[in-house]
Structures are given as C-alpha cells and as structure tokens.
Write a structure and sequence with these properties.
The protein is mainly beta. It is about 0% helix and about 45% strand. It has strands at about 1-5, 10-15, 20-25, 40, 45-50, 55-60, 65, 70, 75-80. The strands form 3 sheets. Strands 1-2-3-9-8 form a 5-stranded antiparallel β-sheet, with no helix packed on it. Strands 4-7 form a two-stranded antiparallel ribbon. A two-stranded antiparallel ribbon has the order 5-6. It starts with a strand and ends with a strand.
C-alpha cells in the first residue's frame, strides 16, 4: 500500500488500485469499549475535488455503512473507499 497524494486526508491505494482514506482515532478512548463503536454511516454520496499529481480530480465517497476497524492506525478507525 502506498500513500498517493498530499491532501487533508491521506489518499491511499491498495494493491488492486482501489483508492481509500483511513479516518483514524487520534487518541485511545478512555472508558469506552471500542468494539461497541457504532458504524460510520454516509447517508448521501459525497463528492469533492482534490489535487492529484498536480491535476484537480473529482473523488466520491459512496453512500454506505463503514465499520470500525481496530487495525487501522494506532487506535483504530474507519476505512472509506473513494471512487
């Protein structure tokens, strides 16, 4: 997996060429069982523009439900695909 671009969120690409961002918890939750964290729900598709390799490109976050993944980052987070 390699870091693709410098943006607000680091856009990454897996070995199959799928782009995604990881929304990582910035600190360890205290007094909270992370296994009980609610999914992140994107009710409406989100569209934005970002600069990729010096070109402005549209990216889309698909509507969906994204589960908490304890293996993302240092404290866990959510992996969000981009189209």
């Amino acid at each position: 997996m390699k870091n693709m671009y410098n943006n607000s969120f680091r856009v990454k690409m897996d070995k199959l060429g799928n782009k995604f961002v990881d929304l990582e918890l910035s600190e360890k939750p205290t007094g909270l069982d992370v296994s009980k964290l609610q999914p992140l729900v994107v009710e409406d598709q989100l569209e934005s523009f970002t600069t990729i390799d010096g070109k402005e490109e549209e990216v889309t976050v698909p509507q969906g439900t994204y589960l908490f993944n304890s293996s993302i980052g240092k404290f866990g987070g959510y992996r969000i695909p981009l189209k």
